[in-house]
Design a protein that fits this description.
By secondary structure, the chain is an alpha/beta fold. The protein contains 11 helices and 9 strands. It binds 2-acetamido-2-deoxy-beta-D-glucopyranose (2 copies). This is Dienelactone hydrolase domain-containing protein.
Length: 277
């Protein structure tokens, strides 16, 4: 699936009328699916944990005292007028592949910050995700991160936000404020269709065919909200043949997984390039 707010072809496809007609049905399906996905979330968000042995060759540095009191990985030209904040999945900011993504985004001309929103308390299989998420609410984190975004703005930077899993929810929360100019989310966790009513900036959604946390059905529901909001550009794509985590926790020796993750990264950078001036 590929849908774009500015794509005449997809608009003409007649999906819009279909989506409205099925609205009631979708809601029922969503509610019925909640119990099943609650179980899937636990495992899928923890699938394919980062391989810390892949560390090395990082272009950036660790900063211990970002505004707001965060530790973070920082890469790219500090003089750039365009900043990207990357919000991690539950494994946090130490993941080697996430840092590689940050470096690649910086190569496109951005100053990139990957904050440690968990203060070192990452989720792992020994922890209960329901308990952990209470301690690390993405909604609360978006409020706590205000000073960081304010500081970047004060430096004259316009800010884009890329979020993975947990970071997807963080990103839509920030996207409801005027602090960010553009958002891209990949395999988001606990993002709702209501969130799509409140986001104020261009939003890109990158999903996966086999994602049970944000299944294609849910991505379609985000789109059916966004297509009625003509003031917000959006883009959504569901990548075939991959699962939750595909964009930042992929198998680096599997050519298809690598190619798909590279495409997702390319689309995210394109989205930032388009809307971050
Ligand atoms: C995880 O925490 C929730 C909420 O406190 C609780 O209901 C659930 O039983 C816990 N699950 C496990 C496997 O301990
Ligand atoms: C990664 O991909 C390689 C090559 O396809 C495969 O042999 C290996 O089992 C995969 N590793 C995991 C953890 O899935």
């Amino acid at each position: 699936m590929q849908q774009s707010g500015s794509d005449k072809h997809s608009r003409a496809s007649g999906r819009s009328a279909m989506a409205s007609a099925q609205c009631f049905l979708c809601l029922t399906v969503l509610l019925a699916g909640t119990a099943a996905t609650a179980k899937a979330e636990r495992s899928e968000c923890l699938d394919n944990p980062p391989d810390m042995s892949q560390r090395g060759g990082e272009a950036g540095v660790i900063v211990n005292d970002l505004p707001g009191g965060f530790k973070g990985y920082v890469t790219g030209a500090a003089s750039s007028s365009r900043a990207i904040v990357l919000a991690s999945d539950v494994f946090g900011f130490e993941a080697p592949l996430l840092r590689q993504i940050a470096d690649k985004v910086s190569e496109a001309g951005y100053f990139v910050v990957v904050p440690d929103f968990f203060n070192g308390d990452y989720l792992d299989s020994s922890k209960n995700i329901s308990e952990w998420i209470k301690l690390h609410s993405p909604v609360k984190a978006a409020k706590d991160a205000k000073p960081l975004f304010a500081a970047l703005k004060k430096e004259g930077k316009s800010i884009g936000l890329g979020g993975y899993c947990w970071g997807g929810k963080f990103s839509v929360e920030m996207g409801k404020t005027s602090d960010v100019k553009v958002v891209s989310i990949s395999h988001p966790y606990i993002v709702t269709t209501d969130d799509m009513k409140e986001v104020k900036c261009p939003i890109e959604i990158l999903g996966a065919q086999y994602d049970e946390v944000a299944p294609p059905k849910l991505v379609y529901q985000y789109v059916s909200v966004l297509r009625h909001r003509t003031e917000i550009p959006y883009y959504a794509k569901v990548f075939p043949g991959v699962a939750h985590g595909f964009a930042c926790r992929y198998n680096t020796t599997h050519p298809f997984a690598v190619k798909t993750a590279e495409q997702a990264l390319g689309l995210m950078i394109d989205w930032f390039d388009k809307y971050l001036k």
